[in-house]
From TrEMBL:
Keyword annotations of the record: Cell outer membrane, Ion transport, Membrane, Porin, Signal, Transmembrane, Transmembrane beta strand, Transport
Transmembrane segments: none
Keyword Cytoplasm among UniProt keywords: no
Membrane topology: Multi-pass membrane protein
Record's subunit section: Homotrimer.
Record domain Porin: where: 12-310
Molecular function terms from GO: porin activity
Signal peptide per UniProt: 1-22
Subcellular location: Cell outer membrane
Protein name as it appears in the record: Outer membrane porin
Origin species: Marinobacter lipolyticus SM19
Length: 329
């Protein structure tokens, strides 16, 4: 019954946007990203239709009776275009929050959303949401519940700071995590013209190492990201050090990516490597692909991705073709 009510609520916003937008109103937006892929993991070779984090959401702001301050909100859900089922649900929660924004004092939001460390990757991942996503070889790609985040206004239209506090709320059995901030995620971001750079740190975040987890469940993660954007070229690099809070396991991760654009075509590639300190396991990621823009918010694409375990002697390869349509109203 709850899923039906949620579907009706979102559907009514899409069908009747003129009513919803009477007073600045919410923006209904979304993305349909569908690919037809061949996936081979050395055991099974299969063709699949993938939905690739397609989504539907509503966001906006409300003027308040106070100068320079407004209420802001966002409710975004993943939708499965392939089979309508996301882990047994029609809609799966993505970034959902509410809060306040002030022109000179910054932004305060609370809810469940991507951590500052995850967001700090910017656009360096050329295969985000596909099988070549960096989450396949490195930790830190977290969307976390019960977060309270403050973001500074942009200094000189370039520099901003983000700090998120995450209370544990005694969610893990046998722990005493009920403080103001049992985990913290933070970032410093510089974004100006051709250059994007970010330095981020997670302290005791609930996560696991990808290549060498000893099931501690809490990590400290340092991530540095840089991206250069020119008219035709993009070049990005990312370094990450992730270690278990008890000091048992540690991973170093590296990623380089690049793209060249001409007319409607974008050719792109990336290479990633994660080295585990405890087991000496190595994970490598290779991705190559091409996008062809049909319009400002629509494209078709083809790509190849491979994730390989060295000691585990496993190789996952994917070849896919697909399309992406973005929309808002």
């Amino acid at each position: 019954m709850k899923k039906q009510l949620l579907a009706l609520a979102i559907g009514s916003m899409v069908v009747a946007p003129s009513v919803a937008m009477a007073d600045k109103g919410p923006i209904v937006y979304g993305k349909a990203n569908v690919s037809y892929e061949n996936q081979d993991n050395d055991v099974e070779d299969t063709w699949k239709l993938q939905s690739n984090a397609s989504r539907l959401g509503v966001k906006g702001d409300l003027d308040l009776d106070f100068n320079q301050i407004k209420a802001i909100y966002k409710a975004e859900f993943e939708i499965s275009i392939d089979d309508g089922d996301k882990d047994g649900e029609t809609f799966s929660q993505r970034n959902i929050y509410g809060g306040f924004a002030h022109d000179a004092m910054g932004t305060l939001i609370a809810g469940k959303f991507d951590t500052p460390l995850k967001v700090s990757q910017g656009k360096v991942d050329q295969f985000n949401d596909l099988q070549g996503d960096i989450k396949n070889i490195m930790a830190g790609e977290n969307r976390t519940s019960n977060m309270v985040q403050y973001s500074t206004p942009s200094f000189a239209d370039a520099l901003s700071v983000n700090v998120a506090l995450i209370p544990g709320e005694d969610q893990e059995e046998g722990t005493d995590e009920n403080g103001v901030a049992d985990a913290v995620s933070s970032s410093i971001v510089f974004d100006k013209g051709m250059f994007y750079g970010a330095l981020a740190y997670d302290s005791e975040i609930e996560d696991e190492l990808v290549a060498d987890s000893t099931m501690d469940g809490r990590l400290n993660i340092l991530r540095a990201t840089g991206l250069v954007r020119l008219d035709m070229f993009e070049f990005g690099a990312l370094y990450q050090l992730a270690e278990e809070e008890d000091g048992e396991g540690e991973e170093d991760s590296y990623l380089i990516s690049g793209a060249v654009k001409f007319d409607r075509v974008k050719l792109k590639a990336q290479y990633g490597l994660t080295k585990a300190d405890l087991s000496d396991e190595e994970l490598t990621l290779i991705g190559v692909g091409a996008d062809y823009k049909l319009a400002k918010s629509s494209k078709v694409y083809a790509y190849f991705a491979q994730v390989e375990q060295d000691l585990g002697d496993q190789e996952d390869t994917t070849f896919g073709v697909g399309f992406e349509h973005k929309f808002s109203m």
